[in-house]
Write a structure and sequence with these properties.
Blueprint: H1 3-19, H2 22-42, H3 45-78, H4 81-115, H5 117-151, E1 156-158, E2 164-166, H6 169-173, H7 176-207, H8 211-247, H9 249-255, E3 262-263, E4 267-274, E5 279-286, H10 289-295, E6 301-302, H11 317-346, H12 354-362, H13 365-382, E7 385-387, E8 391-392, H14 393-396, H15 403-434
Antiparallel strand pairs: 1-2, 3-6, 4-5, 7-8
Helix pairs in contact: 1-3, 1-15, 2-3, 2-5, 2-7, 3-4, 3-15, 4-5, 5-7, 7-8, 7-12, 7-13, 8-9, 8-11, 9-13, 11-13
């Protein structure tokens, strides 16, 4: 493979692996604040115990996320030097803001939250949790603004030589694409954390361990999982799709394997794109739905790939098509699972419903798959551009780095990430095995749950 292909593979590998961790920390940051608020409002120490338990998992996840994020920063200079020279004067601002403000605020208050509870008191400890939440979500916003500029560049003008320079900070920081991408991304992070929390609660319920905490984890996880799964669909996913239709119509055509321009465009449910023959095999479609979802009317004209020069098509239409449909399909399943679980909770039957508990316990990997597929959709759809319609990906790579050098470092990252992944799983499984425990005690004795009940949080 060429140096460009290896560089794309390496960055895709490192960013995909890295994002397995921030999505959980950003989602857990909100759920920990919820647990702390409920502890104060209800004067119930169980919620503090639950918050401490998830804070320990947050800390492990945060540490591994920091380690896996560092290689991406270096790649801007090693593998993508011409892109950094071209757009660094713009995107470097938000990357620096993320590190200088959001990341350090999150790190400092995380230390206070983990180790300062006795000195801070209940309200001070809640304040530390809120600041961790704000720091993590602000960090996410700065990263999203950076990515949104690459998707929909606004606020910049050509500078000296082949460079961009920031002209207007407002449009850049509050890019309409960034606002909806951020809302969609953060709701996905809460879905991930909710499924993880519900999975741990389901595990404890099935094993008849930590019954009171199992009930709390299930109720909080299912409640927020349902709310944010719905938000993924409407309004965040809907508005994100309309932005793609407006500003990246070639990407939309590739996502739906729509090769021909036409009105009353069908929404594809199932099918296999045949790019050489410009057809979609074995399609199952909803007539006119793509026109309506993209432009608000069933008769709207939707451009197909035939409306664009082939050199401007996304590089891998098949991969983009399947990533998009995996994301949408899993998002639909998440809503169905959480609705079913919420009905069981309302009936007071979830703790005794072993099939539903098994589903919740085994479902936790799927939000990770959905978010990975979502980011692949965004990044594959942007191709063949690093900055959409301004700089092509091939023009952004470092000119002097060989394919062999990039391949060697990519293999090294794969080995390192394998070790880090195994260490992470060991530490998290150890915490889950210990379970939530009252402050000052090393463990919580197993308690069998009453048959057919779920503890009210």
């Amino acid at each position: 493979m060429s140096a460009l292909t290896w560089s794309r593979f390496q960055f895709g590998l490192t960013v995909t692996y890295h994002y397995l961790f921030p999505q959980l920390t950003m989602g857990l940051a909100l759920l920990i604040v919820v647990l702390k608020i409920m502890a104060i409002r209800r004067s119930d120490e169980r919620y503090n115990d639950a918050a401490r338990f998830w804070a320990r998992i947050f800390g492990i996840n945060f540490a591994v996320g920091v380690v896996t994020g560092i290689p991406m920063e270096f790649q801007f200079g090693t593998n993508w030097a011409r892109f950094s020279d071209y757009a660094g004067g713009v995107i470097g601002i938000t990357l620096a803001m993320e590190g200088m403000f959001a990341f350090f605020a999150e790190s400092a208050f995380l230390g206070l939250f983990l180790f300062g509870e006795k000195r801070l008191g209940p309200k001070g400890h809640l304040f530390a949790a809120v600041m961790v939440f704000l720091g993590s979500w602000l960090s996410g916003y700065f990263i999203i603004v950076t990515n949104a500029f690459m998707q929909h560049p606004v606020g910049a003008v050509p500078g000296p030589g082949h460079t961009l320079q920031l002209a207007h900070i407002g449009p850049y920081l509050f890019n309409g694409w960034a606002l909806w991408e951020y809302a969609h991304n953060m709701s996905a992070a809460v879905v991930t954390a909710s499924f993880v929390m519900a999975a741990v609660g389901a595990f404890y319920a099935l094993m008849k361990l930590h019954a009171e905490y199992a009930g709390i984890f299930l109720r909080v996880g299912v409640t927020f999982g349902l709310i944010f799964s719905l938000l993924q669909l409407m309004p965040t996913g809907d508005h994100q799709g309309k932005l793609v239709a407006k500003y990246q119509p070639a990407s939309l055509a590739a996502m739906e394997a729509k090769f021909k321009t036409g009105t009353r465009a069908d929404l594809v449910i199932i099918g296999q794109p045949d790019v050489p023959h410009r057809t979609l095999d074995n399609p199952v479609v909803v007539p006119g739905a793509l026109s309506f979802l993209s432009y608000g009317t069933f008769g709207a004209k939707v451009k197909g790939l035939d409306a664009f020069p082939e050199r401007n098509w996304p590089d891998n239409i098949e991969f983009l098509y399947f990533a998009y449909h995996i994301m949408v399909g899993l998002g639909t399943i998440f809503i169905l699972v959480m609705v079913a679980a919420a009905i069981q909770i309302r009936r007071g039957a979830l703790m005794s419903s072993r099939p539903m508990l098994w589903i919740l316990m085994l479902a936790f990997p799927f939000p990770y798959i959905a978010t990975t597929a979502g980011w692949m959709t965004a990044e594959l759809g942007r191709q063949p551009w690093t900055v959409y319609n301004l700089e092509r990906t091939a023009a952004g790579a470092s000119p002097t780095v060989s394919g062999g050098s990039v391949a060697f470092s990519a293999l090294g990252f794969m080995g390192l990430y394998l070790v880090l992944g195994l260490l992470f799983l060991y530490l998290v499984f150890r915490e889950v095995a210990h379970g939530p425990r009252p402050r000052g005690k090393n463990d919580q004795a197993p308690v069998a749950p009453p048959a057919g009940t779920v503890s009210a949080p």
